[in-house]
Amino acid sequence: MAEGYVRPARPEDVAEIARIQLATWRVAYRRILPRHVLDNLDEAYLARRWGAAVQEPPSGAHRVLVAVEQAAQSYLVGFAASGPADAEALAPGEPADALASGVVAVTDLLVEPRWGRRGHGSRLLAAAVEHWRADGFGRAVAWAFDADAATRAFLGSTGWEPDGATRALDVDDMLVPQLRLHVGVPEENVPAQR
């Protein structure tokens, strides 16, 4: 059984968050996104973006959480980022007020594949839900690649379902379909097993 926990990200975590994002995308999205796009992702650029998200979040409701595997040493193995839904959470053509103020958007929920199926995704999601509840959010949304069966299955196992919104990301002249999932923020946190 994995020993692990979740905590808020710290400035010294940003390089590792960027490394996890890059490693995870290159494995999980290799059949979804063009290879040259994944090969050309810049880890230093990702680290700068995560540095800003961790050190200068737009609001107190914007959070980056990290999952830690605890063994002889501790390792960062995943992360989740969320904040109040904004224009990035909207579907194309959706009115700006389509997502009410009580909606939180998950922008990232990643566990490095070699650390998968050890409960880290469930712990990240459970910790995020606790924060969402404390911040007064009643609903959460997340975009997932239509072909990302693992993310869709994981979120689906915890009650998330498509809300009917779709979009296609233009990735180097290739349209990659996504669908938006949503869930009500539960009164009590019942974590799913992963």
Automatic annotation (TrEMBL):
**Which ranges carry the N-acetyltransferase domain?**
4-182
Keywords for this entry?
Answer: Acyltransferase, Transferase
Q: Which SUPFAM superfamilies match?
A: Acyl-CoA N-acyltransferases (Nat)
Taxonomic superkingdom: Bacteria
Q: What EC class is this?
A: transferase
GO molecular function per UniProt: acyltransferase activity, transferring groups other than amino-acyl groups
Cross-referenced PROSITE patterns, in alphabetical order? GNAT
EC number(s) per UniProt? Answer: 2.3.1.-
Protein name in UniProt:
GNAT family N-acetyltransferase
Q: Which organism is it from?
A: Micromonospora robiginosa
Q: Highest lineage ranks of the organism?
A: Bacteria, Bacillati, Actinomycetota, Actinomycetes, Micromonosporales
